[in-house]
Amino acid sequence: xxxxxxxxxxxxxxxxxxxxxxxxxxxxxxxxxxxxxxxxxxxxxxxxxxxxxxxxxxxxxxxxxxxxxxxxxxxxxxxxxxxxxxxxxxxxxxxxxxxxxxxxxxxxxxxxxxxxxxxxxxxxxxxxxxxxxxxxxxxxxxxxxxxxxxxxxxxxxxxxxxxxxxxxxxxxxxxxxxxxxxxxxxxxxxxxxxxxxxxxxxxxxxxxxxxxxxxxxxxxxxxxxxxxxxxxxxxxxxxxxxxxxxxxxxxxxxxxxxxxxxxxxxxxxxxxxxxxxxxxxxxxxxxxxxxxxxxxxxxxxxxxxx
Amino acid sequence: xxxxxxxxxxxxxxxxxxxxxxxxxxxxxxxxxxxxxxxxxxxxxxxxxxxxxxxxxxxxxxxxxxxxxxxxxxxxxxxxxxxxxxxxxxxxxxxxxxxxxxxxxxxxxxxxxxxxxxxxxxxxxxxxxxxxxxxxxxxxxxxxxxxxxxxxxxxxxxxxxxxxxxxxxxxxxxxxxxxxxxxxxxxxxxxxxxxxxxxxxxxxxxxxxxxxxxxxxxxxxxxxxxxxxxxxxxxxxxxxxxxxxxxxxxxxxxxxxxxxxxxxxxxxxxxxxxxxxxxxxxxxxxxxxxxxxxxxxxxxxxxxxx
Amino acid sequence: xxxxxxxxxxxxxxxxxxxxxxxxxxxxxxxxxxxxxxxxxxxxxxxxxxxxxxxxxxxxxxxxxxxxxxxxxxxxxxxxxxxxxxxxxxxxxxxxxxxxxxxxxxxxxxxxxxxxxxxxxxxxxxxxxxxxxxxxxxxxxxxxxxxxxxxxxxxxxxxxxxxxxxxxxxxxxxxxxxxxxxxxxxxxxxxxxxxxxxxxxxxxxxxxxxxxxxxxxxxxxxxxxxxxxxxxxxxxxxxxxxxxxxxxxxxxxxxxxxxxxxxxxxxxxxxxxxxxxxxxxxxxxxxxxxxxxxxxxxxxxxxxxx
Amino acid sequence: xxxxxxxxxxxxxxxxxxxxxxxxxxxxxxxxxxxxxxxxxxxxxxxxxxxxxxxxxxxxxxxxxxxxxxxxxxxxxxxxxxxxxxxxxxxxxxxxxxxxxxxxxxxxxxxxxxxxxxxxxxxxxxxxxxxxxxxxxxxxxxxxxxxxxxxxxxxxxxxxxxxxxxxxxxxxxxxxxxxxxxxxxxxxxxxxxxxxxxxxxxxxxxxxxxxxxxxxxxxxxxxxxxxxxxxxxxxxxxxxxxxxxxxxxxxxxxxxxxxxxxxxxxxxxxxxxxxxxxxxxxxxxxxxxxxxxxxxxxxxxxxxxx
Lengths: 306, 306, 306, 306
Known about the structure:
8-stranded mixed sheet, dioxygenase (chains A, B, C, D), alpha/beta, aromatic hydrocarbons catabolism (chains A, B, C, D), VOC_core (chains A, B, C, D)
């Protein structure tokens, strides 16, 4: 595929209740790498196999949740083009100068119909993945905790799934890989801008701008077990898993950061291509769509959000 | 990423010495699914999780090897555009009408500087992956043998790696993910048109149009073990593995089909993005680049080709 | 260790509500191999890597549950010695002639303080594991379903855990590997007659002769995933897992046969030796002892029995 | 099984050329835990999940190899009984007082027909596995390198395999699980004193007292991959693997310590019982027996010994 468009989820800014506690968790248990702390106390983190400066930013706040989800686009021309197209779609955009967000170029900010604040940018400082680019190895040394390879996607909750879906597909060039329908309504949309089965998902609830979960990728089911053991050893609140999703087929475990933001570690899932058929799950099959092994809903998965 | 361009390796036509023996191997041991046999005796096969009509075509011939590698492009406009650009690059193209290759639309054929015949097409009949598109499961029933998820890539051998590299990068929109250099010469190029670390690789030898291997993807290292056990149980000639590549980090095993064409089963590898640094291996580190665990070359891997 | 004593769980007779439905499940989903059906309609099954004639016997009845758990002992002298020692311990034994249970030698029957009927025998017809004993392979061909390697253990529920514990340790030569205590009371005892962390477990409830679960062993966590996928594909009622036990460290999933008898597929666990320290779990840590990842009890695990 | 007899391989004393280099390797790469260094410079190590004081002792010497392999027996009465029976078998024994080997009780030493020095002992100081015995976790914290669970077995090379076999089976109570025959000669014997498919193996060559390899156990094939990656990252000399053995079915990788002593990391293998049929491999099938995937011998495996 050519490189004109949105490349990937680039970073999220997450609201945490206690920055010290959050940093300890994300560095020592989840195993992300701290790359900076700014004058306002925000902590910048990356997963080990990412080359960009950061993918997770922790920001102390009175309530947990997601402040911004930002996507990296292929180049500055694309950034401009997409800003125009978002405006043409009827959504206001705001332009921020380079370095008004640490280590990052110009940013275009907008709010999607589900109430989530998104940003696009085309440049971020490269810090590398801890291995040389000439004769590298296969894993960086001295990793801690779960150390997923990369930040993978967010699932976001809001009232106008159809609206955000249209924005992402018609304007931002995402494709719908899977969806959940209740009668004529799409109550969840799994959207890809890559060969991954999703880069962002929108889930319906009568709220605005809420976070369902942040997801991090590991190599395999064996690494999901390792993650499960580590969250248990560290007394991290567990929600569900290890299990498999029907949607995306991913192997997964869910748990909560110290502020109550839901995290996922997952592996697997199929290779998405834009000409692959869209998969549809009907709401009566939602239990299987979510938790393929359990085939029943749990108490919290559809109700707890931040 | 937007969908303008080459999507993926779509199919390869493989020359086999005995079509019955080959079919038995590819269906019962490798576990591909036969979708058709044409009037000329060619056998059409797909991996279970592919939706397109076929990805491997077996054609009886006096010598093994690869007849054609074909890529699916996003749409007909792209097909025309790329045909023009290939001609502009100085390489002749030939246009074939729809259905002159079974279940496939118009095709553009050209020969790369390494002597390999490639085709582009934008349409192929969909046959599905054996599961419904509404409330699907996670795996098709009644699979046999190794049953990889999908055909993944080819490694091809020829004399003008630099030439084919330029064609694929400058014209077809591929990116260079990794390369091996000997002094100033690029002796191997691993090229991606996706988020996979390679969709095609070119390896230098003073020949034209040769095949190093066809590769099929499985979910994980546990499935590589299963493949290894199955090739042993079926007395399939083994070359090397299970092991890990330095290049791409993939977990891998190599073996040969009954005609001597090299097959690979692999899993893993990192997520490729066009802004990820190109990795370079120097020829003195080739043993590690190829076989990360063994760190030594074997007798056949660089000499046997079809 | 010398071979004087109880070798292993040899077979269990399980009560099922519908023999046809039960057989279909145990053969096609669980993947056991049918070796015989007797004149009374009882179905005899073995796991693929067992050499003995059977390890599971299905017997139609009005209520589910366990009829008999039988242990193979090393030889006939041991059988006689243990029968005497059981009598000396104050428990009556009953001797059955060879072949009064299909393909099995003389049997000594007794009822343990928890109300479970046990048998000992020293001979059973060998049918092999589907591979030759000269130049065997590593796996029998044509296996179906989950196909665990072997029947591994039972967990049994009854009122006098202390009593059955004493019988098994002081008379039958088992060792206590782990236990759960509530104050001064041992409410669960995990007993080994091998290098496995348990061959039988007793769990307290104010009942007699009840079954908690039958457990079957697979090679690894990857096979537990495969089992989980297969129980989902076959709509087998799921209880909990994939997860890890704190007790024994085993990787596990629980589900129910069509009659409601609980089955487990598990892998892993440490190597037990008689000089290894006994591990004790206090009842307040029971959630972690049972489900190391979840660290909470579910609704059914401690209440549903057959 | 009752506990009268040989329990397990307790420790080996390994000759290394440079104690500092050896200690660095066994602690930081293999991931054993140092428990003591004695006045003579010997280093005592244990695998993390062993409770005994040590299982590997490093002793500086001019040549690599194995000095002693010691088995733990169930109690002092067994120690005396076995000493007598060894003498009756016609082999001299030597008795050493408690604590003449660090942290270890009385020892009985003898030399087997293959020229290997063995010892038996019934007592060794317990140091635990790094977790409490009340409400333990599932893994000790702060482990390094490969950190196998336990030392598992040795394969030893000598001229009189039949002689050592008879000693181990007729006197020490081991069972023959598998063997390789060349015509009427048993050229390799795999002997178990447990439910593991081997605790010691004897392989024929016209030498006395040589070491083929020391083997350490990990949980699964996923951990064998981790071991393979770590030996590569640390530039440890690799021999073969990851692969599977035909003999024992174990998943395996072989490599060499800095002195040239061969090490193995393995997982899997079936559950051995004394009534399981002995498996026989004929010498023409030796390639498959050794390396089930490769099905060919390599240059070093049958020739390099220390």
